[in-house]
Structures are given as C-alpha cells and as structure tokens.
Amino acid sequence: MKGFVGLAMTVYSGSAMGFCGTYVGGAGSELYNGASQVAIVRQADRTTLTMANDVYGSSAMAEFAMVIPVPEVLGPEDVATVDRAVFQTLDAYSSPRLVTYTCDDFAYNEAEDMATADTGAVLGGEGADGVTVEASFTEGEYEIVILSAEESSGLLLWLEANGFDGIDDSASELLTEYIDSGTYFMAARVSLAAIPEDAAYLSPLQISYESASFGLPIRLGTINAPPDGVQNLYLYFLTETEDGRVGISNAIYPQLAIEDECMWREDEWSDFGSYWASRVEDARVAAGGAGWVEEYAWSTGSCDPCSGNPPDDDEVQQLGWSGAAWETFFTRLHVQYDVSLVHQDLQFYTSGIGGSDQIRYIVYAEELEDRFPICGEETPEEPGSCDESSSDAEGDSGSSVEPGADDESVEPGADPDLNLGVHGEADKSGCGCAVSSSSGVPIVWLGVLLGWSRRRR
C-alpha cells in the first residue's frame, strides 16, 4: 500500500436557459494514482481539514497508520469521520472540463467517491522518554493519540514501538524542526474491531483546530513519495464569500500559467484527461519542479457549464462549515511538486477576489476558429467562421462578412461572449445560466496520508 501527501447560492444574471453548449467530460483527480485530496474549511481562525484516504480492502486497512503535525492538543470534539462520497461531489463539481459548441449555440446566445487481522497493541502506551500522550480516543474506525515530544529520537522510538514503521531516522531533522516550533503530532491507525463488516474503504478523517496560521503541513508526507519523486495534491477550499479565492503564498511554489479557453484537437490525444495532465506536468517542469494551478473558483451553488452538482448544505457542513452552502466561496487548487524541492509547508492566503474562473477547453471545430484560439497553434490567416457556414447554407457565396464584424470591439480569434474578469483576462464563467447537472466524473478514490507509515501486523 502506498500513501502520499501532498485540501453562496449565487443568482446568475443571464436568461433562464441551459448552458449554450454540451459538457463532454472532466479531468479530475482520478487521473493521478496516489494523488491526495484534502478539503479545507476556513472560518475566522478555525481550520477544518478533511483527508481522503486511498485505503480499501481488509489487508490494506490492517496496515494503515499515519502521523500528522497539528498546532494544538486535539480532543474527541475536534476529530471526526465523514462520508467519502463528499469528495466525489467536490471533484466532479470542480474538475477541468471539456465542452463542445456548435454554431447554433452562439446564434441562440447572440439572439438573446473488512479487515480480519489482529488489532495489535493499543495506542497510547509507554515507549520512549520525552514523549507525552496528551490525549487518546477513538473516532469511527480510527484509534487516535495526540503526542508531544522533547526530541525527535524519542518520538521515533515511540512510533516504532507502536507500529509506525514507515517513519525512520531519515525524518529526524524534520521532526526536530516541528518539535522546536511547539508542534504536536496526531498519530492514527485503524481500530479493526470498529470497522463494519461490509466496509470496503476507510472513511475520510477530519480534524479541526484554532490557529491564526492558515496552512497545510506536507513535508512529512514526502518521505513516502512514489518512485518518480513527484506528488500531486488536490485542495478544495471553502471560505467566507468576502474572503474569495485562496492561493499559495510560498515563493517556492509558484502559480503555473497554462493555456486554456482554447480548442483541443481530440484526434491527437487518447483522452482529454491525459492532455490536461501533460499540461500540468510541462508547466511544473518549466517553473523549476514545483507549482500550483487554480482549477476552479466560484461562489458555491452555481456553475456553468456544470460538470457535477455543487456541494449542498449537508455536504459543506460535513466538511466543517458553519452555515449554508450559499455563504461559501469554493476554490480548487492542484499542487504538483518534486519532493526534493519541498523545504516548506504550504502557506495559504485569501485574496478577497471573488468572481468566477475555471479550466475549460473546447472540442476543435473549424467553424469556431474565429471565436476560440486553437491550443498551441496560431489562428489561421483565414479562420473558419459560423458566419461563413450560415452564408454557404443560404447560397450567399458572395458574403463579405469578416470574422468579428458583428461586434467591432472583438478581434478575430476572440470569443465575444466572454467578459473580462478581475485580472483583465477572460472571465471563464460560461455563457449560459447556472444550472445543476447530475452528470458527474467517475472517480477512483485517492487518498491523503500525511506522513503515512506501514503498520506492523
């Protein structure tokens, strides 16, 4: 088993019609085996982290254990488990999307996701000098202890004595840094006796705490990096509407610039997901080996085009939000990094910028060349046009309508239906009203094991 780490109902002002185009598919987290998913709710100084664990089957559950740095001593009231289906909602709602347009779309618009082994020794026993068990409790199928330590050697001895074999002396320097900063550690493993007989997956594990610092510890998890040394982390944020979009402030994790809102030639790729994965990989390498891309930012409750239903009141409250879904702003970040470059934990900021943004690609169609650029290509000197198609159909071969001539403010290759967003770029909010769709993206459950370690049987 592998573990990795890397986390307001808006009324649309358009006319009451469906999205002017057809949603084809999305490029969600199922693309990356072992990718981590973390939902992060931030209200004032309270942070709630919900971590999806890619652990299923009795043998895998018997081996599951993890260690997470936490800023304070947590009690039973600060730890919970949630329905794993909520992550399917988050992923389907916010994944990069592929859509199709026809000339009719624009004509209309212009007109108007059971163990049987022994449970082993109970967590919380003696095992090392300088380690204090600050709290011990069970939540769902997890046995949990909160630890403080005076030095890394003692903490490593405690972890080894309690079956956490994956964290060894190589983590000593990093653990020392956390200890010196006053950090506590949450150690969790599966309480096999607490797992329902029909369980196939572990429930996502959730922790809540008060801290002025807004961030996520990821360095301990790099110990369990895959062979290629690259980890993917999907972060789903729910913040106050006025706090707007969330970004990463560490300079060593720059925001990646990736072309989208362009036409994708489907005959050149096996699938859209592979295409998007290659774009993220190429951008990360070009940026020096680490970076992040904002894949979605929107007021929760609306979308266009809708690739999946927005999270509802029950789902945002499961994730730790106090209030209704319409009171939140949703941000999805995809972070990818070479673990050799990870020397800082992630630090986040709220921008105060709302609006709407998404990663969207359009299936290539020649007649749309005057409306959308072609991904990675120059616009032809004589781009195809819906106007030309219409003229041909009417037998008006002598039409002299130039691309964009119906709107003098639009240059050839631009989409006249896209408004400028807060950064002066195209506001990628689609061109129809906010409508919910039940069409979701199939998901393979992937997990976040922060500082995962193999548990001895």
Summary of the model, kept short:
The protein is α+β, with helices and mostly antiparallel strands.
Give a verbal description of the structure.
The structure is a single chain. The chain is α+β, with helices and mostly antiparallel strands. The chain has one domain (22-113, 115-361). Helices cover 16% and strands 26% of the residues. It has helices spanning 58-63, 85-94, 103-111, 152-161, 172-180, 272-286, 313-318, 386-393, and strands spanning 22-26, 36-43, 46-52, 65-70, 79-81, 97-100, 131-139, 142-149, 184-190, 205-210, 215-216, 230-240, 246-248, 263-264, 290-299, 328-338, 346-350, 357-358, 360-363, 419-420, 426-427. Helix 4 packs across helix 5 (172-180). The protein is elongated.
Tell me the total number of β-strands.
21
- Quickly give the structural class: alpha+beta
State the share of residues found in helices, binned by percent. Answer: 10-25%
User: Judging from the principal axes of the Cα atoms, what is the shape?
Assistant: elongated
Strand order of the largest sheet: 5-10-3-2-12-16-15-18
Largest sheet: 8 strands, mixed
Record the SSE blueprint.
Blueprint: E1 22-26, E2 36-43, E3 46-52, H1 58-63, E4 65-70, E5 79-81, H2 85-94, E6 97-100, H3 103-111, E7 131-139, E8 142-149, H4 152-161, H5 172-180, E9 184-190, E10 205-210, E11 215-216, E12 230-240, E13 246-248, E14 263-264, H6 272-286, E15 290-299, H7 313-318, E16 328-338, E17 346-350, E18 357-358, E19 360-363, H8 386-393, E20 419-420, E21 426-427
Parallel strand pairs: 2-12, 6-19, 14-19
Antiparallel strand pairs: 1-6, 2-3, 3-10, 4-9, 5-10, 7-8, 8-9, 11-17, 12-16, 13-17, 15-16, 15-18, 20-21
